[in-house]
Amino acid sequence: MIDRSRVDIVSIATDPVLRLEPFAHALANGCHVLVEKPLAWDVPEAEAMARTAGEAKTVTAISFNWRYSPACLTLWRALREGRIGKPLDIRTEWRLCFSPGSDPWRANSGVLREMGSHEFDRARHLTGWRFSRLACSLRSAPGTRDRARTGRKNPETFASVLAETSNGAVGNFRLLINPGQPERKIVVGGVEGTLTLSSQWETVTQDQDSQRRMTLCNELQVIRQRSRDREPVVLEVSAADCQPAEVLSGQHTWNRLIADFVSAVRNQDRGHCSVPHLPHISDGLAAQRLIRACESSNAEGRWIDLAPPGS
């Protein structure tokens, strides 16, 4: 289609093992490209995609859509306004609700790639930190369906990651699938208090022709707690960041990301200067490097040092 007609924008949502070639081909033919996360299956392919994007004359981005939830945008702004002073640590807990033995993803991935890619990116985007080393433990729940293509008998359903920055800040990530109560939370601790991104959950019918139900996340508020606050304070969400009542955060965040991507295309804004929340391909590479370090840490049972940015 690209070769035979004029195509302006390509969205790549293939399996992660099949993204490099269509990505490079689209850019070579002058297309603007939005690619799904995780960026690729391994770091060398992700590095090749980042190099190709850096040389392209068109706009590229990766779909880290959860940057755009009303709560995440409010938290990002609150940190830059100094609402809790200098940030010292960030903690993420994301528990998805699935039945035992179910297969939550069709792609050959586990919680580290599917969930960790989002939360590693959000931690970096919210704080501006670059992690210098990490330690990780991965586990698979009994009865998880086999995935022969991955080279692992079962995809992991639990990941615990402790990451440090060179200036002493700490990130703690807990990601898992469980048959019980879902949870999604980000807590940032600073010298003056904490900011907590909390979630609400709604169960909806998957489609009109099915009785299958899904429990989905809404990220609508941030709570500040400081020693001088008598009660926790719910921060105001700006009018521009509010979510329509009839739309859940998963769809809303995607709508916002697409709007920013189209705006960048219309303005030929390759650097995303006019849309600061739109993720770069380099952000996808950074998440991919963290994922690979987690896998190495789990396999080798030790802390893994991360290469400095730009190396």
What layout of secondary structure does this protein have?
Layout: E1 9-12, H1 20-28, E2 32-35, H2 43-55, E3 60-62, H3 70-80, E4 87-97, H4 111-127, E5 131-139, E6 158-165, E7 170-178, E8 183-190, E9 193-205, E10 213-226, E11 233-234, H5 249-266, H6 281-300, E12 304-305
Parallel strand pairs: 1-2, 2-3, 4-7
Antiparallel strand pairs: 4-8, 5-6, 5-12, 6-7, 8-9, 9-10, 10-11
Helix pairs in contact: 1-2, 2-6, 3-4, 4-6
Low-confidence stretches: 146-150
**Helix-residue proportion:** 25-40%
What class would the helix/strand composition place it in? alpha+beta
Shape: globular
Radius of gyration: 20 Å
Number of helices: 6
How would a crystallographer describe the biggest sheet? Answer: 9 strands, mixed
Mean pLDDT: 89
Percent strand: 25-35%
How would you sum up this structure in a few lines?
The two termini are 37 Å apart. The protein has 6 helices and 12 strands. The chain is an alpha+beta fold and 311 residues long.
